[in-house]
Design brief:
The protein has 403 residues and is of the alpha+beta class. 33% of the residues lie in helices and 22% in strands. The strands form two sheets. The protein has a ten-stranded antiparallel sheet, with helices on both faces. Strands 11-12-13-14 form a four-stranded parallel sheet, with helices on both faces. Helix 5 (163-184) packs parallel to helix 9 and helix 6 (208-220) packs across helix 9. The chain starts with 8 loop residues before the first helix and ends with a helix.
Length: 403
């Protein structure tokens, strides 16, 4: 009879994505193979990287080992990822990358790391022993000794055997979680408006609709295609009709819209692979929009899409690196063309043909959106101060006229 994992399909995919695009093959299942340490080592050693997964009533806790699983009675040093998440949840994973001593004794599987981190699996008694440091860092609501339902060990295929890569993949997921929390908590400056308005402008096919879809996909945790994407000659997106611009004479035209109805940030969306080849006509259009935005007191950003390698624009702290060698000329061109600060020239790789989300892409998308919201807040602050000053001047003039 085939031995199957206790993991749900979603849980398995979550663990595979923890390390990039890995795949899991079940080697050992405690309820089937029981606990015979010699049998465990025969099944799990010389298999390459492995992942030990412990199923508890409310949580899943585990350790990924980059190096080979140890033999019986041997201690092995390995780069390990310690992780946890709640049963029934597809988000909110906590993870640590630690240098770890791994030992298989006669009765236990032990993981130890400097700083008081310890995780011990006791399959004979179906108990998991966790140090206080592990419970705190993995955000677990567990006691030091907790009963578990199942222990499984998997072979992990399809990953780079590189500690720095593993560390980056785990860290980027933590940074993604941090960015997402900050974006969900965002509020416009001083609550001056219920929501900010960001105008996306750019050539046909530059990625405006794709960026909209990418933001929504990253927020929802799955791919979505709400905005129609295309590159027709006249574009599939109609924000405005350039052949029939709005006229001041129209009854619906508002010459002085309230702050909540104004544009608070203009984002120039440009394909990074063609930004150095824009036509003179397109450059003239973008510069005209830039002058109008400056005149209206609206701040701007530039969004460079179709970045081929997300690693090139992310440093160790997962901040945009617009000075990378491959993009330096494009960034300088945009800066000179639109007089936009380097910090406001952002890079993303939109979702197009992918079937699943990529945490590196999500981080770039969230970082870009975060900077757009900051820029919108700067506009709101400036516009509010300008309106307040204008209102005060008007009151002073009226007061002088009365006198």
């Amino acid at each position: 009879m085939e031995v199957t994992t206790r993991l749900t399909w979603i849980q398995e995919k979550l663990l595979e994505q923890l390390l990039g695009k890995a795949s899991l093959t079940l080697l050992y299942k405690s309820s089937v193979h029981q606990f015979i340490t010699l049998d465990i080592t025969k099944r799990c050693s010389n298999q390459g990287s492995t992942m030990t997964v412990i199923h508890l009533k409310q949580n899943i806790v585990g350790v990924f080992m980059l190096e080979q699983f140890p033999l019986l009675r041997s201690e092995k040093s390995s780069t390990c990822v310690w992780f946890s998440f709640r049963q029934g949840s597809s988000t909110g994973m906590s993870a640590l990358v630690l240098n770890t001593q791994v030992e298989v004794s006669v009765t236990q599987l032990k993981f130890f790391s400097p700083g008081g981190f310890s995780l011990i699996v006791d399959p004979r008694n179906y108990e998991l022993h966790l140090s206080a440091e592990v419970i705190k860092e993995l955000q677990l609501d567990l006691k030091g000794v907790s009963p578990y339902l199942e222990c499984e060990i998997f072979r992990v295929d399809g990953i780079k055997r590189d500690p720095e890569f593993i560390k980056k993949m785990v860290t980027v997921k933590q940074y993604r979680k941090k960015l997402l929390s900050a974006l969900r908590a965002y509020r416009p400056h001083e609550d001056l408006v219920p929501e900010v308005r960001i105008l996306l402008v750019g050539p046909v096919g530059s990625g405006k609709s794709s960026f909209f879809n990418s933001v929504k996909s990253a927020f929802q945790g799955h791919l979505t295609r709400q905005a129609i994407v295309g590159s027709d000659e006249d574009s599939v997106t109609k924000q405005f009709n350039p052949c029939k611009p709005k006229e001041v004479r129209l009854s619906t035209y508002c010459t002085s819209p309230p702050l909540k109805d104004r544009i608070h940030c203009v984002a120039y969306v440009l394909n990074i692979n063609s930004v150095n080849m824009l036509s003179d006509q397109m450059v003239a259009k973008l510069k005209k929009i830039h002058r109008d935005a400056v005149h209206c007191g609206v701040r701007e950003v530039a969004l460079l899409t179709n970045v081929n390698n997300c690693d090139e624009v992310l440093d160790d702290n997962f901040l945009n690196m617009t000075e990378s060698m491959t993009s330096r000329s494009q960034v300088k061109n945009v800066q000179d063309m639109l007089n936009i600060p380097i910090a406001n020239i952002l890079m993303v790789s939109n979702y197009a043909l992918e079937r699943s989300l990529d945490p590196l892409k999500d981080v770039l998308i969230f970082a870009a959106l975060n900077q757009m919201l900051r820029t919108a807040n700067d506009s709101l602050e400036d516009l509010f101060l300008k309106e307040t000053a204008s209102a005060n001047d008007s009151l002073k003039r009226r007061s002088r006229l009365r006198k």
